[in-house]
Amino acid sequence: MERGKDVAKLVYTHVQGGQFRWVTVSTLMLALGTILHLVSPSVAGVTPNWTTATYCVAIHLTRPTYRQSVGIGLVAALINVMTSKSAFPYGNLFSEPAGALTCAILVSLLGRMGSFKLGKLELLPFITGFLSTVASGGVFVTILYWVLGLPTAVYVNAMWPMVLMVSLCNGIVTPLLYVPAKHLFARRGYVTDKMGTTDSHEGLIITPAHDAKISIEHFNYYYTKATTPAIKNINLQVNEGDFLVVTGPAGCGKSTLCMAMTGAVPKFYGGRMEGMVFVNGKATTQVEIPDLATEIGVVMADYDTQLVTMTVGEEVAFAMENRGYSPEQIKERSAAVFKQVGLEGMEERKITSLSGGQRQRLAIASVLATDPSILVLDEPTSSLDPEGTAELYKLVGTLNREHGITVVVIDHDLHAVLPYANRLVLMVDGEIRSDADVPTTLRYMYEHDIYVDALPSIFVTYLRLEAAGYTFPAPWLSVAAAKKGLTSVVH
Amino acid sequence: MLEVKHLRFGYVPGKDIMKDVSFTIGKGEFIAVGGRNGCGKTTVTRLLMGLETPVEGTLYYKGDDITKLSPSERGRFIGYVFQQPDRQMFRPTVAEEVAFGPEQLGYTKSEVKEITEDALARTGISHLAKSYPPSLRRGEKQRVAIASALAMKSQILILDEPTSGQDGKETREMLILLEELRSAGLTIVLVTHDMEIIASHCTRAIIMGYGTKAFDGTPEELFTKRDDLYELGLTKPPCVELAQSVPGIGYCKSMKEFEERMMARREAL
Amino acid sequence: MKQLVPFTKIITTMAVSLWAIILHTPSELAVLLIAELVLLAVTGLLHTQYKVVFTLAVFAIFLAVVQYIGGGTLESAYVTGLRMLCMTMVFIVLLATTRLQDLTAALVTQCKIPYEYAFMFTAALRFVPDFITESKAVQEAQACRGMAMKGNIVKRLQSYGSVIQPLLLKSLGRSETMALSLELRGFGNKKHSFVAKVGMRGKDYAVVIVLAVITVAIIAYSRGLIG
C-alpha cells in the first residue's frame, strides 16, 4: 500500500466508459421498430421489416459481440411474439437471431475494410440491411416450409421472391435510419474509441482533509481531448443535513460537478481529473459506480429515461434485485421508500399510466431504494409546471428535514427551491464564485451582475428598494416576507 | 380576424370539457390563455388549430368558415409552436429545418430560400443557419420552432407554454422576441401558467374554467376585480400582491413598475 | 392456469407444438385443435383473445389455400392449416396468463437466458406506449407545418420520414442517460435476485408428468404401436 499522496497532486485519467450502450441503444431501437409498423408506408402491400432494420442500426452503432448480437435478435423475436406481430413464433425465434448475427458478421468484417461509398452515399448499411433481411426472412420461410410441409413450388416461387422484395425495402430504409443516427452519435460524442489510458488508484491510501458528507478538494476536470478544464480547482464541502443548491449560467459546469459526485465523471464520461472527490470519506476513483450509488443517489433531468420497468413496484425493486438483495429485504425497503415518497398503494400501477410529476417521484423512490444518505437532483423542474415544482420541492424538503437526507439540487428556478435551502453555491465557468447562505449569495450575484436573470424578482426589487433608501427588517425571500417588510415600512 | 362561435368539446361523448365558448381574436393582440390543468386551456388552442374537432360550434377566419379545415391547411395562417420543440426536428441544419414548412406548401426553391432567410432573421437566429438542431439549447430550439411557424407565413402564432423549463435569461429574450413580432403585426396567443408574464406582457387574458370561458378581459381586471382566482387555478403575481399591500400605489403590471412607483413615493416623502 | 408457474406453461407450449409436428393426419390434428379450443374456452381466454385467434385462423387458412394452389393435395392443405393453428394458438395461453415479471424471472432462472436479454425485452415493451404517444405528437407537429399524408409515393415517403426521424433522434438521445442510469443501479451484476417466485410446485410437476406420458403415447401411436 502506497503512502497517501497530497490530494492536490493526484491525477486520474479514464477512457470513456459505459458498458451498457449496446443494451440501451438496442432496447430503444427495438421499441422504435415495434411502433414503426404502425406508421409504416407500404409499396404494393409490401412493408419493410422494421424490426430487422432497427436492430441492424443498433448493431452498426454499438458494435456488440457476436453473442450479444444473437441475444439482440432473440429479444427482437420475443418482442414480436409478445406484441402479437409474429405469425409463427418458432420462425421468429430462429430467424431474428440469424438476421442479427448476419448483420454483426458483416459489420465486423466489412467495417474493417473501411467505408464503402458510392459518391456521397454510404453503402454498408444498404448491404447489411439487405443481407440481414435475406438471412432472417430466409430462415423464417424455410422453417415454415419444413414444419408445415409446404410445396416446394410455393417455397421457391412465392416465398423467396417475397423475402427478396422485403429485403430490398430494408436495404433502402436501413441507411435512412442509420445515417441520421450516426450523425447524432458523432455530434454528441457517444462514439467510443477505446484509445487512451485508464489509471488505477487501487492500493493508494487517500484521505480527505475535511470530515464532510461530500468533500471536493482541489478538483480539476478535463473532458477527453479538451485543452481547457471544464472544472477549475473546486473546493467544496457538503455537510450532513445540508440542502445545497448549485446554480449558474448554462455551461458553467454544474452538471459536471454533479456527475463528479457520483463517480460518472470521469469513469463514464472519460477524461482527466486532478484532485479528488470524496463521498462519505471514500475517494470516488477507488469505488465502482454501482457501489458508490448505494450511498449517493442521483436523479437526472430526464427522469423518464431512468424508468425502465413496467410497474411501479418493479421499478423500486430494480436497483435491489440487481444487487442480489433477498425478496424479504426488497419488500421491506420498498414499503419504507413508498411511505417516504408518498406513493403507497401504487405498486401495481403501470409506469405509462403515471403523470410527469408522479414519474419523477418514482425516479426519486427508485434511487432511495438502496438507502443512500445523500440525494442529488439535476435540474428536476425543467419539465414541470409551477404546481408540480412546488410539490416536488415540498417532498425533497421533507426528505431533508424529516429523514435527514443530505440534498444537493442543481437548478436555475431559484424562487421555488430557496425556501428549503440552507446554502446557495454560484458557479461560473467551472469555478465557484460564491458559497454561502442564500441571501449572501443572491446579493453577491446582484452586486457582481452575474446571472441576475435567475434571481427571484422579489429579491431584486428588495435590493433595489434598499439601495433607494428603504430599510426592511428581513430580506425578501418570499412574497410573505416581502409583504411583512412593506407593512412595517408603510405604517 | 379569427372568430370562434359556441364551441363545445369533449374527448368522451357526453362528457364535455367545455361548452358555449365564443371569442374573437384580432390583429396585433397579445393574448394569454390560462386556467387550471385539465380545464382546457391547451385544448382550446388545439381546437383553433384543427388538431381536435369540436362537437358543436364554428370557427371563422377572415369571414371564411374553417371548421372543416385540417391542421396542415390551417398552417397557412395559424402557426403552432409546441411545448417540446425537438419533437419536430429532423433535418441536418437549422435552415433546412425551417424550410420544411414552405416546401410542404409548394413554394419554389428560390421562394423557399427567401422565406427561410427572412424567418431566421426575424427570430434572430441567422447565425445558426448551418447548426445541427439537436445540439442547440432549449431557447434556441424554441426560436427554430418559431421561425418554422413564421416561414409558413402565419398571421397568428399560438405557443404552448414556451417558457417552461427555461431560465430567466431565455424567458426574457423570448418575450422580447414575441413583443417584436407582435409590433410587426402578428397576433400572439400564449398558453401559460406564468402569472408574471400575463400581467407584464399580455393585453388580454382568456381564462378557461367552470367548463366554459370563465374570463375574457385585461390582466388588470383579472387580478384586481375577480375574487375566484384560486378556483380558476390562478394566483396574483408578486407585483400585484405587493402593490395591493401599499395603499395609494395602484395597479402595477410588473415588478419594475412597482419599484419605480415605490422610489417615486420615497422621493415624495 | 394462473396457478401454474411460467416454466410449466413454456414446457406445455413446446410439448403441444411437438405433438402437432408428430401427428400428420387432418383428423388427428383436428382433435388436438379442439382440445386447445376447449382449454381456451375453459380458461375464459377465448372470449378475451378472440381477435388474436381470428387473425391466426385467417393466416392458417391462407397457408392452407397456398398449399392447395401450389400443388398440394386437399389433405395436405388441411394438415398445413391445422398444424399451423395448433402450434400458434397454444402461445396465447402462455402469454395471456403470465405476468411479464414472472415470465422474465422464469426465462432467466429456468431457461438460463442471461439477465441482460430478459431486461431488454421488458424495457422495450415499457417504452412502446410512450413511443406511440410520441409518434402521435410528432405527426401533429408536422401536420401543423403543412405535412399531409397524401400525394405520390415519393411525397408520402418524405412525410413518413419527417415522422420517423425525429422519433429516431429523440430515442437515441436518451440511450446515453439510460446507459449511465443502468450502471448507477448496479445492472450487470452476476448475483441477480428476483422478487417473483417462479419455482415449480406440486401441481407443476404433475402437469409435466402428464405431458410426458401423452408425448410418449403420441409417439407410440404415430409409430403404429397403439390404436
What do these coordinates show?
The complex is a heterotrimer of chains A (491), B (269) and C (227). Chain A is an alpha/beta fold and 491 residues long. In chain A, 50% of the residues lie in helices and 14% in strands. Chain A has four domains: 1-18 and 193-295 and 374-387 and 405-437, Rossmann fold (3-Layer(aba) Sandwich); 21-188, Orthogonal Bundle (Arp2/3 complex 21 kDa subunit ARPC3); 304-371, no CATH class; 438-490, no CATH class. Chain A has 17 helices and 13 strands. A six-stranded mixed sheet of chain A has the order 9-10-11-6-12-13, sandwiched between helices. The longest helix of chain A is centred in the middle third of the chain and has 37 residues, at 152-188. Chain A is elongated, with a radius of gyration of 28 Å. Chain B has helices at 41-49, 71-74, 94-105, 109-122, 138-150, 168-183, 195-201, 219-225, 238-244, 255-268, and strands spanning 2-9, 18-25, 30-35, 56-61, 64-65, 78-81, 156-160, 187-191, 204-209, 212-217. Chain B has a six-stranded mixed sheet, sandwiched between helices. The longest helix of chain B has 16 residues, at 168-183. The mean pLDDT of chain B is 90. The longest helix of chain C is centred in the C-terminal third of the chain and has 32 residues, at 153-184. Chain C is flat and about 70 Å long. The two termini of chain C are 31 Å apart. The mean pLDDT of chain C is 86. Chains in contact: A-B, A-C, B-C. At the A-C interface, helix 1, helix 3, helix 5, helix 6 and helix 10 of A face helix 4, helix 5, helix 7 and helix 8 of C.
